[in-house]
Amino acid sequence: MSTAIPVENINYWRHPSLSGIELSQAEFTHFSFDKHVHLDYHLGVVTQGAQQFVNKGSSYQLGQHSLSTLNPDETHDGQSRDADGYRVKVMSIPVEYMNEVSQELGLKEHFFSAPMVDDPTLYQYFIQLHELLIQGQCSALAGESHLLNFIHLLLERYPSGVSSCISKPNQLQGLSKLQVSLVKQRIHDEPWHNTQLETLANEVSLSKFQFLRQFKQATGMTPHAYLKRVRLELAKKSLSHGALVADVAQQFGFFDQSHLNKAFKQAFLLSPVQFQRRML
Predict the structure, then answer these.
(1) pLDDT tens digits, one per residue of 210-226
(2) Closest CA to 13 of 176, 97, 163, 134
(3) Residue 249's pLDDT band (boundaries 50, 70, 90)?
(4) So what's the pLDDT on residue 121?
(5) Coil, strand or helix: which one is 108?
(6) CA-to-CA distance for 201 and 211, rounded, in angstroms?
(7) Beta-strand pair 86-93/58-62
(8) Which uninterrupted H or E stretch holds 92?
(9) I need a labelling partner for 259 at 20 to 30 A (CA). Which of 78, 149, 156, 166 fits?
(10) CB atoms < 10 A from the CB of 237, how many?
(11) Mean per-residue pLDDT, 114-138
């Protein structure tokens, strides 16, 4: 008989010597992640129960002994498979860090060809590494050595696939991958800007309705939902480096601090202040 997970709960950590590496551990029963993206690579394991999610139109179930391998900027959701809920450990790795490791292995850049791998050895290694880093008691040398060993093993076992973000001229129902990339890049470059739907549509020579439909078809998210998530991901990064909540709200285009608080808590289950306290 399974043991029910009582409440929704999430905690965040950052090892002092590993800049940009974000660690989290959560217990979810009813909470469901809407479709969203991350700016970093997200690796994770389920230690109790199972999570189900959709990635690139296909459904997956992440259970024990498997490792999630989500690339940056890939739309996905997430919820418990069972009524009892699930427990999950996650590590967020910046693109720059992953690229540096990839280059050491003779790769220009790395993209996982699947959002999860069934690998009991990596599963156990990840749990041990995660526990080591959240305890924060290992030296900088030991922490990064274990992290690099894990990433090396992961990349060697699962070579790079083809990224959905690579710009190519082939068409996606009217919007080419190049056009999608250009629109996304504009959003990333100017997340604070109150961009109009008509402006984005004009850049790719489509009507507002055509652009809205085709962008959602290509990415799984509306342009507004995508912009909102990018703003939230950038806000997390600024908060983890000690920025004031009011400044973060203004910097990334939220109406005010209250607007940021509501959106942040809806996405991450913590207020910006709570998240920042745990990260710092």
Answers:
(1) 898 899 999 999 999 99
(2) 134
(3) very high
(4) 96
(5) coil
(6) 5
(7) unpaired
(8) strand 86-93
(9) 78
(10) 16
(11) 93
Measure the CA–CA gap between 114 and 64, rounded to whole angstroms: 17
Question: Residue 171 in contact with residue 217, Cβ under 8 Å?
Answer: no
Residue 248 CA to residue 232 CA, distance in Å, equals 10
Question: Which residues, including other chains, have CB under 8 Å from residue 54's CB and lie 6 or more apart?
Answer: 35, 60, 76, 77
Structure tokens at 68: 């999630």
Mean pLDDT of the region 50-70:
95
* Residue listed under structure tokens 């479709």: 35
How far is C-alpha 112 from the chain's CA centre? 14
Integer Cα distance of 157 and 229 in angstroms: 31
User: Cβ distance 204 to 183 under 8 Å?
Assistant: yes
- Residue 4 phi/psi, 5-degree rounding, is -70, 140
| 8 A C-beta contact, residue 23 and residue 134 | yes
**What is the residue-wise DSSP string for 145-166?**
HHHHHHHHHHHHHS-----TTS
| Helix, coil or strand: residue 71 | coil
What per-residue confidence (pLDDT) applies to 7? 56
What is the pTM (predicted TM-score) of this model? 0.84
Dump pLDDT digits (tens) for 183-199.
999 999 999 988 888 88
Helix (H, G, I), strand (E, B) or coil at 14: coil
Alpha-helix runs per DSSP H in 72-176: 95-104, 120-135, 140-157
